[in-house]
Amino acid sequence: DNLMIDSLLFWLSVLLASNVLLIVIFWNNYGSRIQQLISRNEEKQQILDQLRREALELKLPKEHSPRI
């Protein structure tokens, strides 16, 4: 019974270690690309926010504003 628990723990630790190894390898291969995509997305968001602010600052002349 004790042997079964020991072997179970052993295989669980092997599984965990291999998963960690795979994640490390994956991150080394693709991590920089993922970081670039994330930073590009943040830049896009900043540009959109800037455009929104500028659009709000623009005030149309009275004759072009919608009548309510």
UniProtKB/TrEMBL annotation:
Keywords: Membrane, Transmembrane, Transmembrane helix. The chain crosses the membrane at residues 12-30. This is Uncharacterized protein. It comes from Oppiella nova.
